[in-house]
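#structure-requests
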Amino acid sequence: MQMQSSPAGDMLQGLHLELAQRAEQGLLRQRRMLQGMQGAHVVINGKRLLSFCSNDYLGLASHPALISAMSEAAQQYGAGSGASHLVTGHQTAHEVLEQRLQQFMAVPAVLLFSTGYMANLGIITALCGRDDEIFADKLNHASLNDAAVLSRASLKRYAHNDITSLERLLAQSSARRKLVVADAVFSMDGDIAPVPALLALCERYDAYLMLDDAHGFGVLGAKGRGILEHFNLSSPRIIYMATLGKAAGSAGAFVAAEQVVIDYLLQSARSYIYTTASPAPVAAAALAGVDIISSEPQRRQDLQQLITYLQQHCQLQRWQLLPSNTAIQPIIIGSNDEALRVSKHLQEHGILVAAIRPPTVPKGTARLRISLSAQHTEQDVAHLLNALHEIEVA
């Protein structure tokens, strides 16, 4: 008996309907094409715009030192690594970068990953399983949530930055391993996790603390060492992840932890083992970025001055600037349609600010995510604020 197959168009029609629904709800995502280098001023689809969309917080993505380092490394190592780290893909540039990061962060050991997403997947799925429990902040990055689900551990989510909520969950747990997971700087709100209090709970309830410092590394701390330097913290219970594609100006990520944790990840983290190593020139550029982070504190000082300037001069009537002492300065608009309208209006004024909508942020909290860079000037920020004030009262 021949089985009757469904028409090929059934799934395709369903996809068309879902996309149409997203468009009606103002949730359809679209790409912009950047022509040329990243920077405070960019060219998008042939139009020059003042950009507040990049995570290039220190302005290193187009820095001559990183470009030179990548170019020279390409001549030495070639364009691609050709294999995974555990076969023949681990090149001298990767090893040098790991050693530099270990020294810079003053940690026992470091392991490179190709992206922050892959690092989070690798860490959490390697360290946690069915008999374990993960405690995650409700506003954590999607990669942390996905990793927790893939680990098959029991997942408990606590209210954002709510220490009382977290302690209640930890006190009820009898899991073999307990892992508290949090963004260090929350990517859509720009606020900072109460890391000392999180660590204190981990010590009290025999848990470990994993921090995703993608938006803090290079920016926070007197020397740019991120959230741990910001709070002057060090503990064998901390598993620290940071990316190299934001403040460091290149790409990739790393995890810093006790040597035994790094050794275990090298043996067990599937997103490390089963993927081709990132190209050595990328690692060389990241190394140059880390050197600038270490040697040029003025970039962080300039960025902090811009943050202060924006907060002092942003006077909104209908919208709300969230409290944030980081380069991420979100303005809550509310509805998806209005957030898109304001973003479009700003672009017509020559200013690029992304409209962030659900599911990236909770329903009803669509926002403009202003991302400041050390490459911006006070005049750039003033131009943005003037345009925002004009749109709000129009």
